[in-house]
Amino acid sequence: MELILTHANADFDALASLLAASRLFPGAFPVLPQRMNRNLREFLSLYRHPLPFVQAEELPKEPVRRIILVDTQQVPNLARPLGPLEVEVEILDHHPLSRPLGPHERYTGGDVGATVTLLVGRLIERGESVTPLEATLLLMGIYEDTGSLSYPSTTPEDLRAAAWLLEQGANLQVVGRYLNGPLSEEQLQLYHQLVAHAQVHRIHGWPIVVAHAQASGYVEEVSTLAHRLMDLYDPAALFLVVQLGDTVQLVARSTGEALNAAEAMARFGGGGHAQAAAAYLVGRRAEEVRESLLEVLGELVLPARTAADIMSTRLHTIGPDTTLAEAAEHMVRYGHGALPVTDEEGRLLGLITRRDLDRAIHHGLEEAAVSTYMWKGPVTVPPDMPVELVREAFLEHDVGRLLVVNGERRLLGIITRTDLLKLWPQVTQRSQGLAGDWAQRLEQAFPAPVIEVLREAGRVAEELGYALYLVGGPVRDLLLGLPNLDLDLVVEGDAIVLAHELAGRVGGRVRAHRRFGTAKWIPPVEKEGMPPSLDFVTARTEFYEQPTALPTVEFSSLRHDLYRRDFTINTLAIGLSGTHEGRLFDFYGGKRDLERRLIRVLHNLSFIEDPTRILRAVRLEQRLGFSIEPRTLLLLQDALQQGLLERTTGERVRHELLLILEEAEPERVLERLHALGILGHVSPHLGWDASLAARFRRVREVAAGEERVSLYLALLTYRLAAHELESLIGRYRFRARHSRLLREVQRLRSEVIPRLADRGLRPHEVYRLLRPFSVTALHAIRLAEAAPQVQESVELYLHRLRFVRTALDGNDLRKLGLAPGPIYKRILGALLDARLDGEVRTRAEEEALLERLLTVEGLTGITGAV
What is the DSSP code (8-state) at residue 353? Predict the structure, then answer.
């Protein structure tokens, strides 16, 4: 016999999971728990008959072979008299595994809002259907545990399961009736007590509500009261301490950012998940438990983020005597909507907005001083203000930005509404337990030597008062599960100082570029898994004086540093120091675009400012199997039509072209470039077709590394006429080895290939034709030419002729007394030709041939010495 069991005091998720499991495990008995919440009892009193549930006493007297646990990880007491606990136990639960598994146990979980979501997902995969009544009960399980799909723990899987159940006929009116029913008299009395005794504690910057009450006997569904109090107070977390006879019931709710509710309840022997948990303490008093709870919260509540944590610190300010025209130029250059005005010591005097600036300039006041028209009362906040109060300040004053100042009104930073909006993804990640997990995921993805250096660099940054971040491609690939040790480290501070301090502690050398604020740390010794260097970059911003020009760089903050990057998926960052350690920063929706598999630019002028991003967009799209977002594709095409790629310096385009050829499958990128019309903008002479793609694939069979890239380049330019090739080389200033190779291939194609087509060529003639050329150039010919005679000749040379040597050499001729001169070349050349053609094979045969050659040369007087 197989049993499906759940926990006592069952809720709708437990009951619905029993039902779903009975469909997944035909023949197993879904056993109702001994105690159920009141709304479940009311529901079953009307609807139990069509449902497959059984009571424990109705079970047949048979041994239990397997137990399926749903929405719990503990075997309930009712199962223990039914058979030995050595039976197979299958656990299906959306809560994280909370205990070691026994030898006969197996756990299946998932990061979803309700256990029934996991089971409904399996029903969908199997192509099953359910009755409207079953769909309604299953939907109640999802709605109850996700707050009708509104709790932070709700996932896309919960919504998909709910949508499917509605398609199956779930009745939302019935769902609402049983989930939002009126409180019982006992619950109502307890609710009034809890409201009367609720206290808001500000713990590490968070509003935490702790409410206590007492009842003479057991009160059902205290958790329902927790939901109502959460709606009433809207705290970061809420705790109910309820004395029920000689037992204290603890109920915990959390929004997920301040603390993990399950972790707090585990201190009292309870459990649950991050947003909702509970504990029962027998023989304890509520007041004693409340005091212990406050101590635990002091330990577990995470420090709330403050204004200092989210503000932008590298500010562009202007002095009071700055003219309005100069202020307007600053705003255009840096893309700001307002500029703080400060005195020489950095004290805040006021704020000039773009709107006021435009109006003043419209009235011809360009030369007026900013101090005349600045707003002298901008809203300010202290750096230690919790983010929650920062939000309230935005609402109270209805402004677009807050300036962060210290007690002396020195300007420290600025906070915009966008900064608050960017916190949303981070709140979600922390509520799912991910934010603190990024450090662990780094450890799993990177070799131990790299992790050791990153940890030490983070410690150095913290001691220096800097912030250190891993940014860009490595973070992107970490989220995609791809290897990438090309580490890009951004420092809010001085990257050069940090790199030198790191080298002083762990050894190694530093190469710094003071102008750009960059430093390259080179390890003292090579270690397996350690890249040859780490790049540290001072956070910076860029602006472009004109399209296609190189940018002007100024030091800035992390957010501005990420904003200068090409695509949203390359703007992710992970903190490596201080309070930011292990936190994922996603200011521009990069994680969302990774999930949607999209390549998206950050702003509409991205391709205008740097047209090489056109090539980069396609390269990333094809490497990752993504798609270029439609708006980004329109911007790309617009930049092409303006001819900006042709106006970009050849060296920059060449760099991107070679990066494309270094891809694992460059033919995919080139085919897409051709389809989008981009390849013709790189050079009007370049083309692409399926046969060229096939030749690229063959390159990987014969070459690797730098030679592979060279062969790709040679094949890509193979069909160009001589003047077209020279135009390409001149435009892109290829390195000497590449230019030499391309010209070699051009000569082979125009001068040598026609002669190789002659079937009457002897081996030594093939040798003489091909010997002047590099092996790489000959590989290119072999890959590019399909004519059998050409193929045979090149293969003959590469595999045999180029290794042929004569037994006799110049030393042998000198021993004969033959004076060095042109005759050496003629005689040795004749001997080699004979070897190549197979006319001589041994030293003796060469000596005989030499004697004949000397006779022909009229040197018979010395032949006897041979």
Answer: E
